[in-house]
Amino acid sequence: MTLTKFDLRGKVAVVTGGNGGIGLGCATGLAKAGADIMIWARNEAKNKAATELLRGLGVRAQSVAVDVTDADAVLRAVEETTQSLGGIDIFIANAGTNIRKRPEVLTVPEWDQIMEVNVTSVFHACKAIYPKMKLRGRGKIIVIGSLSGSLGFGISPAYAASKAAVDNLAKSLAVAWGPDNIQVNSILPGWTITDMTVQTRTIPSINEQILQRTPAGRWGTPDDYEGVAAFLASSASDYVTGVSIPIDGGFSNTLLIVQAPTQ
Ligand SMILES: NC(=O)c1ccc[n+]([C@@H]2O[C@H](COP(=O)([O-])OP(=O)(O)OC[C@H]3O[C@@H](n4cnc5c(N)ncnc54)[C@H](OP(=O)(O)O)[C@@H]3O)[C@@H](O)[C@H]2O)c1
Fold this sequence. Notes:
Rossmann fold, 7 strands, binds NADP nicotinamide-adenine-dinucleotide phosphate, 8 helices, alpha/beta, seven-stranded parallel beta sheet
């Protein structure tokens, strides 16, 4: 490799929700670039399977069974990660949840639950990790937002609002912590084949609308995130901060796909 800026060997990355879906896609990209991985997620069986898969790529991979909304557990996870892997260079805030309900039936406790996982836990974890990164003189934080953060989403109002909030949080952290050489950016996934979208994919009319509005003509897959995550985690992106990168096959950039008539 001559473009060594993409080399993540010797770096340690924490990926919340890294045991499947987009989180595992990001973790795989980082591991392929050489980073050691620590997964923070609740399901221990999935954690084990994901760490085994990542170890197969030749890196160290471990997990902590942690609910990111448990503030004390997150503080313990920061210490455990630092002790067992030697520090935290990269933090990917990926864990997320949704409750699909129209606003008139969504309850305030459900709203709070979504905000807690998708926004408050990210703020808390970033605050917990910041002193470690500041001490090392560098850091990379990647927040997983959503294309819904800039669009109305009638069947998921709390989710869309939470993703707008977390994307803006990334921008504010980028400004606040830029002088500490910590870059903070967002990835905005589009429609991607994961456990979160199982229901959506089974409704033919919605599936058809999604495909019709996506210039790439297909759903995203977790491996679509490998490259962008590795870039934002690497020194190749040292002068990139506070930006949001849609990974959505062109969905967010598209009003309507109209086939040009042949001449
Ligand atoms: N799929 C899409 O189309 C899409 C589109 C836009 C944005 N996104 C965003 O992408 C991110 C990943 O979602 P995904 O599609 O990959 O869904 P997924 O396969 O359901 O993954 C969600 C991950 O979050 C973890 N998680 C959820 N609540 C948690 C909690 N309280 N504490 C710790 N971990 C928790 C889950 O692990 P455990 O259950 O083991 O804890 C799981 O690994 C989310 O932020 C989501 O909003 C997805």
